[in-house]
Amino acid sequence: MDTLFIPGWLITFVIVAILVLILLIKGYVNAKPNEVVVITGLRKQRHLRGKAGFMIPFVEQRSYLDIEQFSTDVRTSESVPTLDFINVRADAAVKLKIGTTDEMIARAAENFLNWNTTDISNSVQDVLEGNLREVIGQMELRKMVNDRQEFASKVQDNVAPDLAKMGLEVIAFTVQSFSDEGGVIDNLGIENVETIKKDALIAKAKAERERKEVEAEQDKLANDKRVAADLEIAQKQNELKLKQAALKQEADIAQAKADAAKGIEAEVQRREQERVAAEANIMKQEKEAEVKEREVKVREQELDANIRKQAEAEKYARQQAAEAELIERQRKAEAELFETQKEAEARKAQAEAEKFAQLQEAEAIEAKGRAEAEAIRLKLEAEAKGLDQKAEAMKKMQEAAITEMVVDKLPEIARAVAEPLTKVDKITMYGEGNASKMVGDIMQSIDQVSQGAGFDIRQLLAGALGVNMTVNKLKEGDQPVIEAEKLASKED
After folding, report:
1. Domain region containing 471
2. Where is the protein situated, by its record's location annotation (predicted)?
3. Per the confidence metrics, is the pTM higher than 0.90?
């Protein structure tokens, strides 16, 4: 049977390969994130955290440090006097972990290599309690109770250097409670409760006062806004009234101008009608004067032919009646003139009073007053012009009118003079020249009447009858003779 031959070098290579593989597997190291692998041996200390590495088996060795945080309770084993000499006990919770720097890991490796967190917590109890007691002795009880955060910060700051020397870090330090044997803390609580109640009452009263102040302020603001709104409404209404008044004023001005224009136009038309009527009346009166002049001539001829002596007698009566009527007409004319003047003065005074009152009113009424005053002035001017025209017409026909009146009244005058004589049986005259004296007295009376009337009755009658009368005083015992001469040729 044949024997298998294996070279020696191959066997050596296989053995070496197996040994190398075993060494690699034995020397491979893998560190978790929450642990640190500490490699010590051939060279200086090496640390692996959250990564893999190699070490030389049988020459180097590995150890573990747990770097996750852990909690521990710290209590004072006995009462500790505070700065104000009150014995208290304190209970706190502390969170610790091994530092992650190489220096901190080296320190922790020196103290806690391959320790669990419970062992580490037990080992640092005396350090934590000592620092806790130290800080209690530095603070007053009221300040510790009222400001626990400051107390915890002081303890954490005080213990951190000591723990750092062991490779530990303080993550958090929380005070859970304070207690004392004399009930001081409870009394502080009661005091605080009362203080809180007092503060609450003060705060409530202050809040109530502020609420009332706010309500009063709001009421004031609301009232101010309401007053401002009412004022604005009143102003708007006033502006509306002023605008309406202005519009009414403009309307009144326009109406006044229209009324004034109508009044002026009406006054112009009235004046034109009066002028036309006056001209027509003048023409009518001239025609009537011509007719009456002809009638007077006819009557003159009749009187001259039929009743010379009766005409002498009636003449005196007519003269008296004419004088009386003329005086009456003059009085009436003066009265009418006086009434016209008074009416004009009254109108003027009324216009001035209306003008004064209208000056106190708005511009529209003032304009209307001016228009009315202008209309009144035009009317008065028209009336004055009409009166002037009428006076002119009367002036033209005065002589013919007076003559007509005298002629119309001559029969009545004659009857009035002759009627008393019908009741007389006889007339006896004494003295010389009685007949001529009577005639002279009659003529003297006629002259006196002419002077009182303001016109010559003899000339008037002479013009009316077309004759000129001459009275000659006869001698004693003679009868008066009236001579008349025709003056028609002289008048022509």
Report:
1. 425-492
2. Membrane
3. no
